[in-house]
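INPUT
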Amino acid sequence: MDSRAIGVFDSGLGGLTVVKQIIKALPSESIIYLGDTARVPYGTRDRDTITKFALELTKYLIKHDVKYLVVACNTISATCLEEIEELSPVPVIGVIKPAAKLAVETTKNKRVGVIGTRATVHSGAYTREMRKIKDSIEVFAEPCPLFVPIIEEGLMQHQIAEIAVAEYLLPYQDNDLDTMILGCTHYPMLRDLIQKKMGSSVKLIDSAKPTAQALKLDLKERGLLNSSDEQPVYKLYLTDTPLIAKSVINIFFEGDPPTEARKIEL
Amino acid sequence: MDSRAIGVFDSGLGGLTVVKQIIKALPSESIIYLGDTARVPYGTRDRDTITKFALELTKYLIKHDVKYLVVACNTISATCLEEIEELSPVPVIGVIKPAAKLAVETTKNKRVGVIGTRATVHSGAYTREMRKIKDSIEVFAEPCPLFVPIIEEGLMQHQIAEIAVAEYLLPYQDNDLDTMILGCTHYPMLRDLIQKKMGSSVKLIDSAKPTAQALKLDLKERGLLNSSDEQPVYKLYLTDTPLIAKSVINIFFEGDPPTEARKIEL
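OUTPUT
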């Protein structure tokens, strides 16, 4: 039993989709969320820059005495999970492996699509993780760089979102997938449009739920679950305070807004 | 006469539109361009973050012994030009004042539109600068946050650009402007679409040319022009090296590619 908080970090606010599932799966656990909103997005940057920024976030959370680190960002998980694990004295989980595992379990025809940021797709991380489990999996991966800005601008219902989805999913027209990974924590916000475009026979997988489940299992196995009766505490630290953040944050925490939400310096 | 380089900086690559005009107006001058591609875009961030980042860029260029600083970014010029001037031992020019002056000289009905990032529009800098010259100017300012990502993705000819232009310029439908400031160094890349939407009677103003002209005049007045016969040197420093950068860079330097182009640490 361990009442310390779980540290969750992301390049911005997208990782809150993972927080939402962690709160559902582990309602007794306290959470510290760190979003690097001053430097978001990461998915268009190079490997060294992403690694440098991610290790700064890691150090910050470690100083805040967390018992576990959740890398709630596909770009960071795909780029430098090993470097984070090397630096961290506490266990680390990324979002790639749990989603890759679920995708392999889900696909029947072994044809899986992956959409994500440019950095995530170029890293080949999803392909590697799926082939580790089943080496005959065929993977079709495409970057969708405009999805994140469209979602951050709240234009999910706008015609622009529809056209962007049509454009980026065009390469998937004829390759007979039965499963597609939404390989960016923002993309579930476009789930309906993506589902419509891909057709109802394609199963969409996102990282949030399988990551929360894998985290729960590992906390249990390591004896790190919190069994105290105290109310969990949610803290939210951002490196910038855009006007838009408040409304986005409330979507994810629903009935349980963070007890502390503030801008910090890394 | 002073053969030191002119330092030009921007949050990313958009400031190269200003460099292009400086090369045209001042073909003997050497230029060091610094683009913070690791942390672009700035226009969605808060005032403190923008100021902090901009002062880091300023310090870097000052160390490189430049004779003049050009803030080739509307967001930075609108947010913290004074702080940069306080820090800098050499003269500083931003892009807001020269464009504002040209807009006031251009408008006949004194009704001017301004489009820019959220930070630029919220700062009110264009309105202030225009009213300093003529206090009866009416200003209609609207942020267009999706323009920068669309341009950085090279989608200027895509239907998405057309729809974004239609959406963001909708508020200008009935307000009888005769002049509009493209208040972001990226926006000239959407000039044709914006002109088509606004109608041919509306004059579009961008910062690049008037800033280069104002720079030329001030260099002359201060005796800082370079009169040596040596070939000018162009250096390009970026804080990140996205795959897309190379092709974008060549558009701006045309026949004169930078002699040095590399990633640097601030």
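end of record. The mean pLDDT of chain A is 93.
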